[in-house]
Structures are given as C-alpha cells and as structure tokens.
Amino acid sequence: MTIRRPILNRSACVAGLVLVAWPALVRADPACFGAADNRRLTFQVLQNAPTSKSSRQRPYAYYPQTGVASMQLQSVVAPLPGTATYYFQWANRANTSLANADGEAIVRKANLQPSFTGKRKQRSAFTSVARADACTLAQTAGVLGWPDRAAGYARAAGIRLVGESAQPDAGSVGPPDTCIAPAGSLAPVKSGGGGSGVLLDYEVQDGRTPAQTTAFLRQWAQLVHDGHRPAILLTNPIDAPTQVYTGVTADNAHTLVETFDLTTILLWSRNPEHDLAASYEKQKAAIAAGGKFDGSRVLIDFELAGTTLEDARFVRRAIVADHLAGVFFWRNGARQGGMCTSDVNARIAAIAFGDGAP
Q1: pTM for this model (two decimals)
Q2: Which residues contact 195 (CB under 8 A, 6 or more apart)?
C-alpha cells in the first residue's frame, strides 16, 4: 500500500535558513503564531495537541502545524480541511515481574486506558505480553471502526474487552486483563485514502525481545494500513537504557522504520550522550545499521521544555541536510502560545522557519 506524503520544496527549506529572520515573526498579536504561518512551512510540523475548532480560533497555542496527534479522539474525528490528524494510541505493556541487570525488581505502572475525550480514568494490568498486545490491537481496531475485529483480538488472547462507559472511578485499576475500548471511531476514509492516521507511543519496557517487538509492530502497522491510513511509530531514544526492556535495538530499528510511514528520533535535554547532536547521530547510525538511512520516514521528536535555542538550530540543520520528514513537538511540561519573545517560541521558530542561524 502507498501512503501519500506532502510534496515539499526542499530548496525553499534551505533558503529559509538564511532569508527568514526572527524579527519577521514579531507581531502586535499576543499569539506569536497563527494559521497563516502554516503556509510558510516547508516540511511536516506535527503538534501533540487537539485540532483547532476554526482557523480563526483565539487563543490556539499550537501553530505552526501541518498536523496534530491527540489522545482526544473526539478532536481528530472531524479535523479542519488541510490538517493531518493522528489518533495518539498508547501501546499496552505486560505487568509481570521484571528484574534489571542488578537483579532488582522493576515495577511497571498499570496501563492508562483511552477515552473519547482524552480524560483517561482506569488503569489496566495485563498478565502477559501477548495479552497486552491484543488489547492494543483491539483498541486500534475499534478506533478504525472495526468492532468485530477488535472483539476477535480480545477473544483470541483471552482478555475482556469492555466499553468506555464501564470504567470505574478515576485512578483505580480494573480487573486483570481488562481492555477498555474508547467510545467512537475515526471518520471513514474517503475514496483514495488520506484519512486520519494513528500514532503508536511504544514505550512498553516490559522485557519483551526484539523479535517480539518486530512481530507485533509489523502486525499493528498492517492493521492501520488495512484501513488505508498512515501509521507513525513514536519511541524513546533508540539508544536509551530502557530500550533493552522494550525490544528496540540497532538490529531491528531499520526494519521498524521501513515498516511505518514515519518513525521518530527523540531528541531531548536528558539524552544519554549529554549532547543533542551526538544523540541524533547515534540514533541515525542505529537506523542505518540495517540498510540505507531514509530520512523521508523520520521525524525529530523535539522536547520544548529543557532544550536550548542552539539545539533547535541543530534540529533545523539536520532536517534540511538529511531530508527528514520534519518535526514533532513534545512539550514535556513547556507552555506553548504567547509572545514571540518566549524561549519556547524562539525554539519553535528556529526549527520551523529558521532564524538566520548559519
């Protein structure tokens, strides 16, 4: 199956490094960015946010954007024309006992279960990797509008699939192996595809092997592609210490990138190398270990809270030089919106438009 991607003007992207200066973004409007800024983008810019209700909505803090990814299913059911939307799906983990390299017990929180509004209440614990994966598949199938297929995943794995209305009080953990199906589903794909996609946040850390991870992620991506929708994989840094428990390694990273329409490289202030550029190069090398590095399938997942303006300038250079698909902004507690003089908006501008950085 072929997923259509935006056609981007790479020469304009390079020119943006020199010609678009930071002062050009200063406005009387207290919101630094608006819907008009979307037209200036030369690569994908995804925001982890609900969609705007209107191109004139004020205040709306999540411009510029080519699309959004949100846990609020109700937000991505009927997006504005021209906005790419992705339902943000958590991958469920097994809650079985696990020990680290020193033999110390690792306690994993029960899984937060989804809701139509994004206000999650119940947590669920799963007694095996297979049952956790079955719940993830069932939840995604339901979001895609296939309740019978969702029920089939649950039945085959021996888990209980219940509707969102059956959730108990906030913060409680339900009976083991109980999977919550969010109310509602994405709008049907129109002729030719191109409807809302699904993003999978895959940080299970439950002791599964690379072989298990590869098999499951291939199955999950195929499920989304069966619906003629794009699939995005979001992970912790490929070289993060926790990946030994998640099954993402240099041995399968290239295969995973080839499996998904887009895969993230997470760049944040607490990277293992203590240097954003070094972290990028190491993760890029891990992806390339299995074959040629295809930047068109890679998004930089960029932390807005603890990074610097120079970090942002590096990300802009990497996107241009390696022909990456673009950037996914991760707030990690940072506040978006407000005047252009804020540190967060300066970093967004440096990546999205360039600010005269060499």
Answers
A1: 0.88
A2: 186, 187, 188, 189, 227, 228, 229
pLDDT averaged over every residue in the chain: 86
| Coil, helix or strand at residue 18 | helix
Q: Which pLDDT does position 114 carry in this prediction?
A: 86
Residue 308 has φ and ψ, to the nearest 5°, of -115, 170
d(C-alpha 95, C-alpha 101), whole Å: 18
Please give the C-alpha separations between residue 314 and each of 7, 156, 220, in angstroms, as whole numbers. Answer: 23, 47, 33
Q: Is the pLDDT of residue 20 over 80?
A: no
**Residue 232, SS3 per DSSP:** strand
Tokens 């190069």 -> residue: 281
Report d(CA 316, CA 320) in Å as an integer: 6
What pLDDT is stored for residue 191 in this prediction? 59
Nearest to 141 by CA among 128, 127, 155, 120: 155
Quote the DSSP letter at residue 115: -
Helix (H) or strand (E) holding 180: strand 178-181
